[in-house]
Specification:
single chain; alpha+beta; five-stranded antiparallel sheet; 22 helices; 15 strands; globular
Length: 535
């Protein structure tokens, strides 16, 4: 059961026509030899050094700072609303934050002899580093002697699996809208050297519907995901029978197995049946290893040639011949007039609002890392409020290559489109913005970096929001924030553990501690936040 997995009773039911079955994962264990484990650890080091960061005189702000063990039992902070899933090791609840009144998903995992803590922590650590609009966000977690508590986005519309079961078939435009999101998420994952290994409709949550009914989705359940190194092959039978790639069954594969799984989902959505089926797992896997799917059914015959061509390329039997996520996103199927108009209409931002957001980008400052951390925490926890959703639309609109990141040229294009600048002026503005936001100089801006820089921070000007952020730092609930509590947050990132950054934190702390009593009170914290709002 993945972090936001709301499915129940996943069993090996026999295949029924026009109704793809839920299949129990073949093996949810990591099967690696010692040498491969050492390589994976090395790639985790690479991954941690290349994630979303901001610097302030040597200090860096990473997702390890924004998402760390809260230090208190979430059941004291969240009210249970509804049980939405259960499995062998625990439950998933819809919960409501008692102070904010916002709904989240809480996964409670019982520690037992069957539960593997390393795998749970692996999933937590991977999700902490991923920042993409179509990937589930982990918001909080806490470990006790007998349980794991994990707080994530709450996706009220449920699994894509249930939507497929209810509707059976989707139009090409509807399917393209979903597949495009999945390919964007997987392109981002693969660039971050993360391989998912269990993409299926049960692991895709519907986070909302557009006015035309099109689905916005998020990829979940990174329990079998791994950090990989380019050129190194994976081993071990991991996945679910309908969606598993043939090379995974053979026991030697790379990240292209994720592309195969997306191809299977595309085929199912367009035809209403799986491309590889059987009465049990063994017969399904036998058909998968043959690599031949049915092209004679009417639902497939009636598809456009572009749709058939993309399916063929996603389901190429040999991984080295299979299309990449980047190539798939540029496929002619996504260039049809209907899809392009739909995508642009859904992600269109009011020009006046867009211009205002670009102005906010220019005014954003990251010279006080503690202030940045407070704002980053508020944004991370509230990306589904209207202002953040509008900022996300603008982000998608100017993310021209749909990789979930903004490079300098894309931001420059945004200034030209929404601010009416010529290329020279847009370039100058772009350089200024990157100097402030992309302070780790990694060459791109991810979605939450963009959102927290371009929204008006005054939207968090309420006592509930301020107390919510204050409590994140006040881990002992004393009513004051100590320098030790600030250090504990920033020391979640190894690079911050040195004497220079310790001195810098104390210097920044003292600018907030107005009465110089060695602690930050709620009133002093409020003044700090309001200073951000007036910047």
């Amino acid at each position: 059961m993945g972090i936001c997995d709301s499915s129940q009773n996943k069993s090996n039911n026999s295949y029924q026509p026009n109704q793809p079955n839920k299949i129990k994962p073949i093996n949810k264990q990591h099967q690696t030899n010692n040498g491969h484990t050492r390589k994976e650890r090395g790639s985790i080091k690479y991954f941690a050094q290349n994630n979303n960061t901001e610097k302030s005189n040597g200090l860096i702000l990473t997702n390890d700072v924004i998402v760390s063990d809260s230090g208190f039992n979430p059941e004291q902070v969240y009210q249970k609303i509804k049980l939405i899933g259960e499995g062998a090791f625990g439950e998933v609840w819809q919960v409501r934050h008692k102070a904010l009144g916002k709904d989240f998903a809480m996964k409670i995992i019982e520690k037992s002899y069957n539960c593997k803590p390393k795998e749970i922590l692996n999933e937590i650590n991977i999700l902490k580093q991923l920042d993409h609009p179509n990937i589930l966000k982990i918001l909080d977690f806490h470990l006790t002697n007998d349980k794991f508590y994990i707080i994530t986005d709450f996706c009220s519309e449920g699994e894509l699996y249930h939507e497929i079961k209810r509707r059976n078939q989707f139009s090409e435009a509807e399917t393209a809208f979903v597949i495009h999101q999945l390919l964007s998420a997987i392109r981002y994952c693969h660039k971050m050297r993360v391989i998912h290994r269990d993409i299926k409709p049960e692991n895709i949550m519907i986070m909302g519907r557009e006015n035309n009914g099109y689905l916005n989705v998020k990829l979940i359940d990174f329990g079998t995901a791994k950090i990989f190194e380019i050129g190194n092959m994976q081993k071990g039978l991991v996945g679910s029978s309908y969606y598993i790639a043939p090379e995974v069954i053979r026991g030697k594969y790379d990240e292209s197995c994720d592309i195969w799984s997306i191809g299977v989902i595309m085929y199912i959505m367009l035809t209403g049946v799986p491309p590889f089926y059987g009465n049990d797992d063994d017969s399904i896997l036998r058909h998968v290893t043959e690599g031949k799917y049915d092209t004679t059914i009417d639902a497939y015959i009636n598809l456009s040639e572009n749709a058939k061509d993309l399916i063929r390329k996603l389901l190429k039997f040999y991984p080295n011949e299979r299309i990449t996520a980047k190539e798939a996103l540029n496929h002619p199927w996504f260039q049809t007039a209907e899809f392009k108009v739909t995508y642009q209409t859904i992600n269109t931002v009011n020009p006046i609002e867009a211009k205002e957001m670009f102005k906010n980008l220019e005014n954003y400052r990251s010279n006080n890392i503690i202030k940045c951390a407070a704002l980053a925490y508020l944004v991370h926890q509230n990306t589904n409020i209207p202002q953040c959703l509008e900022a996300m639309k603008l982000f998608k609109e100017i993310d021209l290559n749909h990789d979930g990141k903004l490079d300098p040229n894309e931001l420059e294009h945004g200034y030209m489109k929404y601010c009416g600048m010529n290329k020279t002026d847009a370039k100058n503005k772009r350089i200024l913005v990157f100097a402030n936001i992309d302070t780790d100089n990694n060459g791109y801006i991810e979605s939450e970096e963009f959102i927290r820089a371009c929204i008006n921070p005054r939207l968090f000007n309420s006592k509930n929001y301020l107390k919510f952020a204050f409590d994140y730092f006040d881990t002992d609930r004393s009513g004051n924030i100590s320098i030790e509590e600030i250090e504990a947050k920033f020391y979640q990132t190894a690079k911050n553990k040195n004497m220079n950054t310790k001195k810098e934190l104390k210097k920044l702390f003292d600018t907030i501690d107005i009465n110089h009593d060695g602690q930050i009170s709620f009133d002093e914290f409020t003044l700090m936040i309001k200073d951000i709002m007036n910047t």
